[in-house]
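Hello,

Following up on my earlier ticket. Below are the two sequence lines again, exactly as submitted.
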Amino acid sequence: GAVVSQHPSRVICKSGTSVKIECRSLDFQATTMFWYRQFPKQSLMLMATSNEGSKATYEQGVEKDKFLINHASLTLSTLTVTSAHPEDSSFYICSARGSGDYPEAFFGQGTRLTVV
Amino acid sequence: GQNIDQPTEMTATEGAIVQINCTYQTSGFNGLFWYQQHAGEAPTFLSYNVLDGLEEKGRFSSFLSRSKGYSYLLLKELQMKDSASYLCAGIDSNYQLIWGAGTKLIIKP
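Thanks for your patience. The regenerated structure is below:
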């Protein structure tokens, strides 16, 4: 299957700082990328959907000024958690989908963010 | 509204067979995914069904009935490593994924 690489896998940051998470599709062009967060023992929660070259569409309740998403190319999307707080500590996962009839979404490895 | 329902937790014995059910209600339908997720890891793709019937892939099979809004994931010859959460996700008319809460599968020796 296709490969989506997410980096870093783990990050610990101080409260008030910003953290950038990268999501790359390595062997296909990702026309759409999705960003999820997942709290322990809970399901995936979609934060935003981004299409290459356009602004991300955020889900209700997700602060767009706090979670900055950039999808500047067909192989790279970034999520920046700005002014992080302990309640932002979570597992963040990206997924990428190419064009075509097969709408499979491939997931990155996830990023465990801990804000102290 | 759109909704995916699946059991919260199931328990099965090593070597046995288990069926995880999923019912869905989506605005339009463009298929259904099953993913496996081990604790602390991202989901991994298991299957995609868009037509009615059974798709078999080794020990795992997935079934879809569009008229009933129903799918199941069948796991045979269960192994301890199959202990994980299994996520059902429907694809609506806008190609958005609608996720179920996941079924935690516990395998006992």
